[in-house]
Write a structure and sequence with these properties.
The complex is a heterodimer of chains A (557) and B (238). By secondary structure, chain A is of the alpha/beta class. Chain A has helices at residues 3-16, 28-32, 35-48, 86-96, 111-114, 132-137, 142-150, 153-163, 175-184, 205-212, 214-228, 242-257, 288-295, 324-328, 330-336, 338-342, 375-382, 415-420, 439-453, 459-476, 482-498, 502-506, 509-517, 519-524, 551-554, and strands spanning 20-25, 55-60, 72-75, 79-82, 104-106, 191-196, 232-238, 273-279, 319-323, 352-359, 365-370, 391-396, 402-405, 429-434. Chain A is globular. Chain B is of the alpha+beta class and 238 residues long. Chain B folds into 2 domains: 3-77, Ubiquitin-like (UB roll), CATH 3.10.20; 100-225, Alpha-Beta Plaits, CATH 3.30.70. The chains are: A alpha/beta (557), B alpha+beta (238).
Chain lengths: 557, 238
């Protein structure tokens, strides 16, 4: 295929599109709330009114305002309807001819929308993710063409480095540096992996990207493949995302048919094929070495790094592994240039970040904001605050992150500031909590999650999380003494410092950050140790293995 | 042969490049506790007992899988490491049912040795008392999962030295257990050659010869190193 052919597809598609396009979200959330029925009703009403030549219904990806779904948007009038039910859908078509629309009108001028800066989500909710032509019509695959014909691999790596993009999976490792490392490895087989094993509770950014704009990720992977010298890519998606998998499969098939993936892309010597690998339900497989084992067909266990995957990864070959959102930023950087991207955000964190804003907040949904925006702006302006209450804390970074108290709401959202206040950027989960939330319970919830999800390979993570969970439970049952609290802190430090992979090293974070900011809640649950000459259950307490007496018998003695 | 010079616990050492910190320390007679490490099979860095501090690095690194570097200054016995090691051993004891007094390996048990080495005389963590079951289906050997510390030495020995791959790990997290065959009773696994290498590899009394009683198990771990040296370097030395 030549550039002209690509442009022809784009102009044919634009000519095909009707003057009025009615977008209906068909992502998982809205789909669960009868979005597909709404599409049927809308199409029925168009036929009934003989408007099929001017109006079309487009099943699109996520529009972001997930808490108010199903969402329907009328283009070009920019009318947004929220919480649409199938019975009312027909009135949206009637409104095109002067009737009254029954569904609730959404306010597109609300800060929830206006404060956003869509780079990755630019065409989310505006194109049909199941038709490659719509992606091509908005300039899709032109960045790939440009990289192949106008740039050397080294120039692509340089461009990504200069953009300042950092890993969106949570670690924040400079993407350009990672690419450069893989590119500099000696030639031969190399791989590109897209990590779509999103598993943090409350996070659904990657799912949304894959469901709404799968080609964005595919194109980003192909550009990455060209830059590092890989001819084979894998997308690792969790099995809990069937719609994302389905759309990726369709996307890969369509791209192959047009010669945009596979052999001799754009008739150049560059080959790149992409395969999908489906996760089997293990959170730890989001850790890169575990993910690689899982793709190889082995047990998803992490291994000590170094060697890093960039040096020895999939099938022992140099492997570039990036998160979905990271790869989704690539085409925009190539299209608009590194300088443009580096102009967004803060000194050390460039570009935008997508957050899944959930919890006790008026406006639930996905937002894409420039780095450096404060938590207060996100929560109070965009999120509309807590319904009938007050913010107590914000949890970012899932089970690896921490809770930020309301006194620190003016913290800018960037990698380093969040780390400074004891949390992390993470993959983008942002859970708002109000005054009714017990922070100890939150810590217990995340510890329960880690206890369930540890792979069991290393001792501190496998059994330390179990003991930490037990200590937190003991606290909540009001049976813990100050000695238990001290032990909790000591064990947190030990699990953090000695675990093998990121899961264990960060598992204590929710406890440590809530201890840092809400220590009084822990202390309020403590009880004074009581002296029992014959402690309850002492008869059942076995003497420990090496023959000494358990501590419980010594306490208070 | 490239040589690296480094310092472990204030002792200057020169070792071959590519050597692990654990091997370098061993060469110099500096003891570093370990449980999952076994000479002759691939190290996995799972027990976290051999973690050491390296000056200039804020992370603790496992000595068994970390290669020596030129000019490294390594500490193996800082107060922090000693406390973490003790906690690790306590966690292992609290996780399973390690009742030395009635164990086949009593007196010749690496877990017991490590506990003494790190000064763990009791566990500050409550015992879990799991009920993990015992498999007596094999005619010669048995596995008591309650005494298993999931070091995966048996898994690696069976896979890498014997080539049978009878063992693997099933489930995850606290539910992990060593599984034989396709989750069959050990005695029904046709791949098992009854070589007994897993018995010698097991650091505790989890895998043992049938018919042995308290304190009667004496694992010959050196045999496994001998086998791999013989195979790889063609040196038949013990």
């Amino acid at each position: 295929m030549e550039l002209q052919t690509l442009q022809n597809i784009a102009s044919n598609e634009r000519a095909r599109q009707k003057s009025v396009r009615i977008y209906c979200c068909t992502s998982t959330g809205c789909r669960a709330a009868a979005a597909l029925e709404i599409i049927e009703t809308l199409e029925g009403a168009i036929h009934q009114r003989h408007l099929q030549d001017q109006v079309e219904v487009v099943g699109v990806g996520c529009m972001g305002f997930c808490g108010r779904g199903p969402l329907v948007q009328v283009d070009p009038d920019n009318l947004l309807y929220q919480e649409v039910v199938p019975d009312q859908a027909a009135s949206i078509i009637a409104a095109l001819q002067g009737g009254e629309a029954q569904p609730q009108r959404g306010n597109v001028h609300h800060p929830f929308f206006t404060r956003q800066m869509p780079v990755v989500r630019e065409y989310s909710g505006k194109i049909d993710p199941e038709r490659i032509e719509e992606y091509i019509a908005v300039g899709g695959y032109q960045s790939l063409y440009r990289t192949i014909y106008e740039m050397t691999p080294a120039q692509v790596v340089e461009e990504i480095s200069r953009s300042g993009l950092r890993g969106r999976g949570g670690g924040g490792y400079p993407t350009g540096l990672k690419w450069a490392t893989v590119a500099k490895m000696p030639g031969g087989q190399k791989y590109v992996i897209c990590n779509g094993d999103e598993g943090d509770p409350g996070a659904f950014m990657d799912r949304s990207i894959l469901e709404s704009d799968p080609h964005l990720v595919l194109e980003g992977m192909a550009i990455a493949g060209y830059a590092v010298g890989a001819n084979h890519g894998y997308i690792y998606v969790r099995a809990e995302y069937p719609l994302a998998i389905d759309r990726l499969q369709k996307g890969i098939q369509q791209a192959k048919r047009y010669g945009l993936l596979g052999s001799q892309i754009f008739d150049s010597p560059f080959d790149f094929k992409i395969d999908i690998r489906i996760g089997a339900g293990a959170f730890v497989c989001g850790e890169e070495t575990a993910l690689i084992h899982s793709i190889e067909g082995g047990r998803g266990n992490p291994v000590p790094r170094p060697p890093y995957p960039a040096e020895r990864g999939l099938y022992q070959c140099p492997t570039l592994i990036n998160n979905v959102e990271t790869l989704a930023n690539i085409t925009a950087i190539i299209r608009n240039g590194a300088a443009w991207y580096a102009g967004i955000g803060t000194e050390t964190s460039k570009g935008t970040k997508i957050f899944a804003l959930t919890g006790k907040i008026c406006n639930n949904g996905l937002i894409e904001v420039p780095m450096g925006i404060t938590l207060r702006e996100i929560v109070e302006e965009m999120g509309g605050g807590v319904p009938g209450g007050e913010v107590k804390a914000i949890q970012t970074g899932g089970p690896s992150g921490g809770c930020i108290p309301k006194t620190l709401l003016d913290t800018p959202v960037d990698y380093d500031s969040l780390r400074q206040v004891g949390s992390i950027m993470g993959s983008g989960g942002m859970v708002v909590m109000d005054q009714s939330t017990s922070m100890v319970e939150i810590a217990q919830f995340y510890m329960d999650f880690c206890r369930e999800e540890t792979c069991g390979k290393c001792v501190p993570c496998r059994t330390g999380t179990v003991q930490l969970y037990a200590l937190l439970t003991k606290l909540l049952e009001r049976q813990a003494t100050p000695a238990d609290l001290a032990q909790l802190e000591a064990l947190c430090a030990m699990v953090r410092d000695t675990s093998l992979c990121g899961l264990g090293q960060t598992a204590p974070n929710p406890v440590l950050s809530t201890l840092k900011y809400f220590r009084e809640e822990y202390e309020a649950l403590l009880v004074e140790p009581q002296y029992h000459p014959h402690p309850p259950g002492a008869a059942n307490q076995p003497v420990s293995a090496l023959g000494s007496v358990p501590d419980s018998m010594l306490e208070g003695a | 042969m490239a040589v690296r010079t480094l310092k472990i616990d204030d002792r200057e050492l020169a070792v071959e490049a590519g050597t692990s910190i654990l091997e370098a320390a061993q060469e110099a007679g500096i003891p570093i506790p370990r449980l999952c490490h076994l000479e002759g099979v691939t190290p996995v860095g799972a027990c976290r007992l051999c973690l050491v501090e390296i000056e200039g690095l804020n992370k603790l690194l496992p000595a068994c899988v970390t290669e020596v570097g030129e000019g490294m200054v390594i500490h193996t016995q800082t107060a922090k490491l000693q406390e973490y090691r003790r906690m690790t051993v306590e966690l292992i004891f609290a996780e399973g049912n390690h009742i030395c007094a009635i164990c086949v390996a009593n007196g010749d048990c690496e877990l017991q040795d490590v506990a003494i080495q790190v000064g763990m005389d009791h566990s500050r963590f409550p015992y879990q008392f799991p009920d993990r079951g015992i498999d007596l289906s094999h005619p010669l050997f048995a596995i008591d999962h309650n005494r298993c510390i999931l070091c995966t030495r048996c898994v690696r020995v069976c896979d890498e030295i014997e080539g049978a791959h009878v063992w693997d790990v099933a489930q995850r997290g606290p539910d992990c257990y060593i599984v034989s065959g396709l989750n069959q009773p050990w005695g029904e696994v046709e791949a098992c050659t009854s070589c007994g290498k897993c018995v010698d590899a097991c650091p505790t009394g989890a895998i043992f010869k049938k018919g042995s009683t308290t304190g009667e198990k004496h694992a010959d771990t050196a045999k496994l190193e001998f086998l791999s040296t013989a195979r790889e370097k063609h040196q038949w030395t013990r």
